[in-house]
Amino acid sequence: MVAKDAAKVITLSEFKRRNATGECLIVFDGSAYNLTSFRKKHPGGPLVIEHLKGKNATDVMIAYHPDDVIQKRLPYFLVGKVVDDGVDSGIESSDPDEAAVPQQTTPNAPLSSVEKAGGAVGYGALVSNSEVSKDYRRLHQQLKDLGFFETDYSNYMREVIKYLICLTIIVYTGIFAPRHILSYVVCAATTAFMWQQMAFVGHDIGHNAVFHNAKLDYAVGTAFGNPLLGISIGWWKSNHNIHHVVTNSPEHDPDIQHLPFFAVSSRFLTKLYSSYYGVTWDFPNDHFAKLLVSMQHNLYYPILCFARFFLYLQSVKYLLSPWCPYRLWEVGTMICFASWQIFLVSHFHSWTGIAIYVFMSHALTMILHLQITLSHFSMPTQDPPENEDWATKALRTSLDVECPEWLDWFHGGLQFQVEHHLFPRIARHKLRQVRPYVADFAARHGLSLNSQSFYYGNVLLYRNFKEIADQVGFAWGRIGGEKVNVAKKLQ
Ligand code: HEM
Q1: Which of 31, 65, 426 has most ligand 1 atoms within 8 Å of CB, for mutation?
Q2: Cα 306–309–313 angle (5° rounding)?
Q3: Three-class secondary structure of residue 117 per DSSP
Q4: Secondary structure element (H or E) that encloses residue 180, with its range
Q5: Which atom of ligand 1 sits closest to the CA of residue 52?
Q6: How large is the C-alpha radius of gyration of the chain?
Q7: From the CA of 54, how far away is ligand 1's center (Å)?
Q8: For the chain, where do the domains classified as CATH 3.10.120.10 start and end?
Q9: Cytochrome b5 heme-binding domain spans which residues (predicted)?
Q10: Nearest Cα to 471, choosing from 296, 299, 330, 314?
Q11: What does the angle CA 248 – CA 251 – CA 252 come to, to the nearest 5 degrees?
């Protein structure tokens, strides 16, 4: 833990007052740190810090940073130990009605997108750490001591060999094999398989879990991942880290924000502002979204077949945005992707062949999108109970997918989603071994470790989507026979 200057203190009311007037203070292990000027320089981006503004960030900090960040860099921002002066004893209200109307306290403190969306999340009480939090940190240290945070590079060597075999098949069937429909089908299926398998390694590297060095992981990820996958690792990181910090929050988590196609939570059926996209969705007045969402349980699988195209679009939007730090580099790597794809299909000599390849390779990758969404789409999206711990939140909002060990290659380690959310810096190939420790942890605190088979996970997802679709159908007058205001209906 960080060595603290015992002389420095800040009262709870002062801590809250400073946050309300535009500064950005967080709590780590009972002490306040001022990140006002640092947040813009933060390697993980400013938004993740905004999400913890005025809150207890202890466990999130531990989950995401190497020891030296916490031991050597964090003390630089120390304000002092937080003491409860009795003026206000807890964190700000998590009452959604109250949170929905954030107060702009001074004209010099413009509301951040997080505040506009209803305020930060935060985990655990401010001045003291709960038993769950203490035990989480003990477990974190224990897993570190047992070597689970260390990378087994032989695992990645096997992955590289797998990709080289895939590339050989793609080049042979796409360029040299007889121009036959079977060649195109094999070429497309191998491309889809390679994309699915590479995405798992991309996931590790995006979490800095391969080299445990943010710059090196990013460099290797963008040098190989972008050209072969066509998805910007920079975009993925910016999106995915937010997803981890605010999992399943309708206002904040971009991974569950899919209007006009899907509404993962009935909260999307009202007017909702997204702190990530900075836009407001006015569902009650969006007839296109109503149409799609009212059929979402049936459209889900067909739409997933085209999901990859949306990821290209998101990547391009990110590359054109002002917050892409290495634009030229990332654009160059993405051009490499477009070039090899065009080069490959230019050898097909048939539009049918090209259509088969493009459609099949993209549609088959829907399995990956399904694997990714399954672990959260059927889990709770309500506001967390007040002072909920980081670990409790991870267990509440994530679902493990049961599978035998020999099928681990297929699920790519992402089937251990609960373990991954608790320890995002542990590489996927170690998560099966981590699971028993998490099961014990959950049992010690009376928490559930949610887990379902792949089939039943799909059933749960379908039911959740259908329930929400039916609400739209009813509100739209299809089921009830009369037109009802959807926003009112859901209150
Ligand atoms: C609310 C507080 C904070 C949150 C939620 C947070 C979150 C994150 C996240 C999600 C990442 C991963 C970024 C990536 O994928 O590359 C990250 C990385 C990083 N953060 Fe923070 N952070 C916080 C505060 C801080 C502070 C106070 C410091 C400095 C003292 C800091 C320094 C860093 C560094 C150096 C990295 C790169 C780590 C690496 O090499 O793997 N962060 N942070």
Answers
A1: 65
A2: 145
A3: coil
A4: none
A5: 1
A6: 24
A7: 17
A8: 2-121
A9: 7-83
A10: 296
A11: 65
Q: Contact, 99 vs 93, CB < 8 A?
A: yes
| Cα dihedral across residues 66, 67, 72, 75: positive or negative | positive
Closest residue by CA, ligand 1 atom 30: 74
ipTM of the complex: 0.95
Biggest CA pair distance of the chain: 80
* Three-state DSSP state, 205: helix
The owner of tokens 């681990």 is: 408
Measured between alpha carbons, how far is 445 from 168 in angstroms, rounded to an integer?
Answer: 50
How far is residue 392's CA from residue 384's CA, in Å, rounded to a whole number?
A: 10
CA-nearest residue, atom 26 of ligand 1 = 74
Q: Which atom of ligand 1 is nearest to the CA of 57?
A: 1
**Identity (one letter) of the amino acid at 459?**
V
**Within 6 Å (CB) of ligand 1, which residues are found?**
26, 35, 42-44, 48-49, 52, 57, 60-61, 64-66, 69, 73-74, 77, 208, 213-214, 237, 241, 245
Expressed in percent and rounded to 5, the helix, strand and coil fractions of the chain are 60, 5, 35
Over residues 32-45, the pLDDT tens digits come to: 999 999 998 998 88
Please give the model's pTM, rounded to 2 decimal places. Answer: 0.89
Tokens 């080049």 appear where? Answer: 171
Residue having the nearest C-alpha atom to atom 11 of ligand 1: 44
Ligand 1 atom 9 nearest Cα: 44
Superfamily of chain region 2-121:
Cytochrome b5-like heme/steroid binding domain (3.10.120.10)
